[in-house]
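Lecture notes, part 5. Sequence design as translation. It can be helpful to think of inverse folding as translation between two languages: the language of shapes and the language of residues. The source text, in structure tokens, appears below.
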């Protein structure tokens, strides 16, 4: 039977989930049409409206106007009509996308624990293809001639690349990756040309990269990188009807004519490039991880020799390149600050930035403030300053909280950027009166490659120590209540959370862990475990005695006896179809915790994969999250 407090939290979470999905998209232009996504909460609601574009205007709109409104719109998708029009049940639809030419709709369908891809023609008003059991990790590409997608091997690794031609209605196997450490990924190029994408097959060190052209009856894979080290900063530049492969390496950009293989190089003279994208004949480089500074390079040809016009631009806040950029004269950037979305236009010719509009993500009363701030720990009592993102709700004032209940988040692996963006879980937590705090430990990608490398391999202890230091810093500064702290983490973040339980065993009242990786010592030695082949670059080669001893020193399972005396309550959520985490290792760890008197429970979800809860099971997340918040907020005090 649920307590009154748990019912209270459940109501808050349910309302928060509805509040975050009431948001409507901008009106944005893609190709020859304008679009707007409304009430986008798939499986429950969702409408896509469309208008014909009749001029050269590409600037997104905040809301309806005289030219684009409900009355003159055409609804091309309404989930309430999905069964009648597409033959699909609402509960099956996981995502919907539109091709750049506006002719095709693609649906990801969750059916019998597998994912299928359904393509529908808006022109012919009929199904084009239905492809079963595709791999979502690799992504996919829907072109006007056919579809590129992957399927998995017995280890759930995306290893086989397929092409389905609309003309022949046949599936073709076009590439197989035999190296067990490599995984195939499919990339849509920034300026899509309808039938071109990119495909990589790579481990953490090196691999292959191809340009993939989709013809009516077959595909052509053009090698761009062959068994070499390459960054994730690449794209295709279109110039004078020719295609150039653009790749950032160290302090230079190489521009390779795909047809002639002629290469040009340009020195960048800046460090820490975080991303690269091409729009038409313009290259955009993100500088650093603060996402305020960009290098824009406009490329032209003079007698087959490239001319580069460079300009550094800086925004007043963190932004990212807007996904719908189809103008050759301007670039659009979008930023989020205090739960407001700001759209900026950069005019390429006159090199000016203009703020177009601000759209609130959340509706709130005039006296309510939703706050988000990044603070840094002091380095005088620790080897480095650690960035922490705080999110909280307050009345009228934006002043920092005092002695407030807090839910922490940590990951710290693979160089993943753990920048905080609002979602229903975070909103639920702050609406319930908690601070949400993300400790950006070394090993993650919040501050770029050097920050990542300082917390991987034989430096993994830095991630764990950073997290403990960050939590202690907020306690010492009086921001958070030391008696009401919880932590949420997942996957590789389980190492940091689990090791923290061993090293500072009463720091948290409760831990909520989704598919946690808590036994790297055994997983990396098991030759049947795919992680033993794919994870060497992240954790080190455990066949080396120094590496083996180091991993043993922090592995949560191997040091579980340190948790003796902890009053922390541990909740682990697992998915029975998880291709990455060995669920038996988590169950073994939970049993070990219980044997040392630490209360630990495991929920094994038979319908879910990695993460433990599928998108269709929000009711499960509501129950688990409300129970977790109830534990953290309980009134039994204890010293930490």
């Amino acid at each position: 039977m649920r307590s009154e407090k748990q019912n209270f939290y459940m109501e808050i979470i349910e309302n928060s989930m509805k509040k975050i999905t009431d948001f409507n998209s901008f009106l944005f232009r893609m190709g020859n049409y304008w679009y707007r996504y409304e009430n986008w909460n798939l499986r429950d609601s969702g409408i896509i409206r469309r208008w014909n574009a009749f001029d050269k205007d590409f600037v997104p709109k905040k809301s309806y106007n005289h030219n684009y409104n409900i009355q003159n719109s055409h609804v091309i998708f309404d989930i309430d009509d999905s069964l009648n029009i597409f033959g699909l049940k609402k509960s099956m639809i996981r995502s919907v996308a539109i091709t750049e030419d506006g002719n095709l709709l693609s649906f990801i369908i969750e059916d019998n624990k597998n994912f299928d891809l359904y393509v529908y023609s808006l022109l012919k008003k009929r199904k084009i293809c239905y492809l079963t059991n595709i791999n979502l990790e690799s992504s996919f590409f829907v072109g006007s001639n056919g579809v590129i997608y992957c399927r998995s091997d017995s280890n759930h690794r995306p290893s086989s690349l397929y092409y389905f031609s609309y003309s022949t209605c046949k599936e073709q196997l076009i590439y197989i990756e035999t190296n067990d450490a490599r995984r195939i990924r499919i990339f849509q190029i920034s300026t899509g040309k309808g039938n071109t994408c990119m495909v990589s097959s790579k481990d953490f060190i090196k691999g292959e990269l191809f340009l993939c052209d989709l013809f009516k009856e077959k595909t052509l894979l053009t090698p761009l990188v062959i068994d070499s080290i390459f960054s994730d900063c690449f794209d295709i530049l279109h110039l004078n009807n020719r295609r150039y492969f653009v790749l950032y390496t160290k302090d230079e950009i190489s521009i390779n004519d795909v047809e002639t293989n002629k290469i040009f190089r340009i020195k960048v003279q800046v460090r820490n490039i975080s991303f690269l994208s091409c729009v038409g004949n313009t290259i955009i480089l993100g500088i650093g991880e603060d996402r305020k500074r960009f290098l824009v390079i406009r490329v032209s040809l003079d007698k087959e020799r490239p001319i580069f016009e460079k300009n550094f631009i800086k925004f007043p806040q963190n932004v990212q390149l807007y996904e719908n950029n189809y103008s050759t004269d301007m670039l659009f950037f979008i930023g989020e600050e205090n739960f407001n979305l700001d759209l900026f236009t950069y005019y390429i010719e006159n090199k000016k930035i203009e703020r177009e509009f601000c759209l609130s993500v959340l509706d709130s009363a005039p006296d309510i403030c939703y706050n988000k701030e990044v603070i840094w720990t002091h380095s005088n009592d620790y080897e480095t300053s650690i960035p922490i993102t705080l999110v909280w709700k307050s009345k009228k004032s934006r002043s920092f909280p005092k002695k407030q209940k807090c839910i922490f988040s940590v990951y710290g692996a693979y160089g993943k950027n753990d920048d905080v963006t609002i979602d229903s879980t975070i909103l639920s937590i702050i609406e319930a009166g908690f601070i949400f705090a993300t400790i950006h430990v070394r090993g993650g990608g919040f501050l770029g490659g050097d920050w990542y490398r300082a917390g991987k391999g034989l430096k993994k202890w830095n991630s764990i120590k950073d997290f403990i230091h960050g939590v202690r810093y907020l306690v010492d500064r009086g921001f958070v209540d030391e008696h009401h702290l919880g932590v949420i983490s997942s996957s590789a973040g389980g190492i940091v959370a689990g090791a923290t339980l061993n090293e500072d065993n009463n720091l948290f009242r409760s831990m909520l862990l989704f598919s946690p990786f808590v036994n790297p010592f055994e997983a990396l030695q098991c030759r049947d475990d795919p992680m033993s082949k794919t994870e060497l670059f992240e954790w080190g080669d455990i066949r080396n005695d120094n590496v083996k001893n180091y991993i043993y020193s922090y592995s949560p399972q191997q040091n579980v006896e340190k948790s003796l005396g902890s009053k922390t309550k541990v909740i682990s959520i697992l998915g029975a179809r998880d291709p990455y985490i060995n669920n038996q290792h988590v169950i073994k760890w939970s049993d070990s915790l219980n044997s040392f008197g630490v209360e630990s429970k495991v929920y094994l979800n038979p319908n879910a994969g990695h993460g433990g809860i599928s998108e269709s099971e929000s009711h499960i997340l509501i129950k688990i999250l409300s129970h977790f918040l109830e534990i953290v907020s309980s009134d039994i005090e204890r010293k930490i």
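The translated text above is only one of many valid answers, since several sequences can fold into similar shapes. The chain has twelve helices and 36 strands.
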